[in-house]
């Protein structure tokens, strides 16, 4: 522990995602907010690996466009945006994914987004700035591919 009572880098223990996220899901179901550091690049360019955080809350009424934590297969979770809901089937896609999608049942949606912390600044998913990000990000794979390439080349991570 450091002087502020926070764990030092070497004091941090990592758990496998299937175990850790199962516990996160339990906490959220009990009504707690849970803050997670983003891991991976599937939500680029808006959320960056190991830099940004998401604050998750209990799922209310999911809709297309929402970013959610979902269990896509037993023990495997993703934080992606809902792109379609048909009956009880949900289709998800990361903002940084050009082609790939995932599917799960609506009952496998574990949490919704209460807020996002990007570069240390908090955003509401219902706020004007985040809605603009979401609306302006292209749905077309080729446009997305070009913009992601430019982001990787010139973006400030």
Structure description:
The longest helix has 14 residues, at 141-154. Strands 1, 2, 3, 4, 5, 6, 7 and 8 form an eight-stranded antiparallel β-sheet that branches. Helix content is 23%, strand content 31%. It has a single domain (9-154), classed as Umud Fragment, subunit A (Ribbon). The mean pLDDT is 86. The protein is globular and about 40 Å long. With 157 residues, it is of the alpha+beta class. It has three helices and eight strands.
SSE diagram, text form:
Elements: H1 17-29, E1 34-37, E2 53-57, E3 67-73, E4 76-86, E5 89-93, E6 102-105, E7 109-118, E8 121-123, H2 128-136, H3 141-154
Antiparallel strand pairs: 1-2, 2-7, 3-4, 3-7, 4-5, 5-6, 7-8
How would a textbook summarize the main sheet? 8 strands, antiparallel
The parts where pLDDT drops under 50 for at least 5 residues are none
Q: Could you estimate the helical fraction of the residues in percent?
A: 10-25%
Number of domains: 1
CATH-assigned fold name: Umud Fragment, subunit A
Chain-averaged pLDDT = 86
What portion of residues belong to β-strands?
A: 25-35%
**Order of H and E elements:** HEEEEEEEEHH
CATH architecture: Ribbon
Estimated structural class: alpha+beta
Described by the principal axes of the CA atoms, the overall outline is globular
CATH superfamily grouping: Umud Fragment, subunit A
Number of helices: 3
**Spatial gap, N to C terminus:** 29 Å
Number of strands: 8
User: Compute the gyration radius: what is it?
Assistant: 16 Å
In the CATH hierarchy, what is the class? Mainly Beta
């Amino acid at each position: 522990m450091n002087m502020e009572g926070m764990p030092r880098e070497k004091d941090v223990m990592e758990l496998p995602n299937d175990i850790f996220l199962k516990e996160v899901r339990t906490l959220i179901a009990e009504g707690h907010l849970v803050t997670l550091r983003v891991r991976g690049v599937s939500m680029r360019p808006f959320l960056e690996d190991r830099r940004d955080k998401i604050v998750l809350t209990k799922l209310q009424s999911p809709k297309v466009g929402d970013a959610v934590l979902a269990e896509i297969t037993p023990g495997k979770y993703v934080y992606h945006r809902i792109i379609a809901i048909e009956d009880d089937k949900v289709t998800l896609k990361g903002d940084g994914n050009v082609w790939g999608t995932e599917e799960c049942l609506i009952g496998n949606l574990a949490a919704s987004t209460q807020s996002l912390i990007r570069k240390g600044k908090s955003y509401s998913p219902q706020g004007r700035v985040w809605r603009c990000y979401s609306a302006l990000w292209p749905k077309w794979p080729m446009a997305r591919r070009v913009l992601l390439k430019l982001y990787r080349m010139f973006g400030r991570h």
